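Board notes, transcribed. Complex of a protein with manganese (II) ion.
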Amino acid sequence: MTSKICSTTCLPQSEYDNFCSNQFHIIAGPCAVESEKQIEDIAKMLLNCKVLYLRGGAFKPRTSPKDFQGLGLEGLKLLNIMGKKYQLKIVTEILDTRDVELGVEYADIIQIGSRNMFNSALLKEVGKTRKTIILKRGIMATLDEFLLAADYVIQGGNENIILCERGIRTFENSVRNTLDISTMAIIKNSTKFPLIVDLSHSLGRKDILLPVAKAVLAMGINGIMVETHNDPNIALSDAAQQLSFNEFKDFLGNLNCKR
Ligand code: PEP
Ligand code: MN
């Protein structure tokens, strides 16, 4: 393996430190920030469920340019307001090098999405910050390529990296992507990076979320990401995989994880 491993000397009190601890973290929220009311309803629900991390896309990387692209800066501001109002930490994706400073200002954790795992310009840019970064694995990236992407961030001086497995593209089409648990085990054994799993984007469906979550929980990962929406049927993106509030509460109850 050619990648450097994460050093144990991190900035104090970063989100990164929290994910290095033995606690199990849940990052939840909608695929996209759609309106003030939507994100506020979700923020309140998460606070109620003692979930600390609110995710939501302000800049959406959509396959079709005709699909909803996110509220942009307005979405970032809404997330930031809800984070402060409900004491939630904000996780959001930044797509463009020109928006990294906005991510630093408005979010607690910047997500680099699967489509951008190979975007070295963006990786270098977030490497210049000291923000905690969630780096998602590209759907066609080998483990080495994934860890080398992390090296781009580290090279800028930012070692606050949380790796995120979110499935890879295989011949299997009953799920959106195939969760690569073997590689997760290697990451756990041979690197010091915290590792989380994005269940929603990996599966692309919600009926098998619970058993898969139990399986990855048993592997000792540091957290999961799950999409939830106040009204999934009318969600502007990823409607099929977002849990309703009741489904989300049932999911948390049945997962029964210490956090
Ligand atoms: C997301 O988390 O909103 C997202 C688009 O995920 P991914 O990059 O894994 O597809
Ligand atoms: Mn989504």
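Residues 36-48 form the longest helix (13 residues). The chain has one domain: 15-255.
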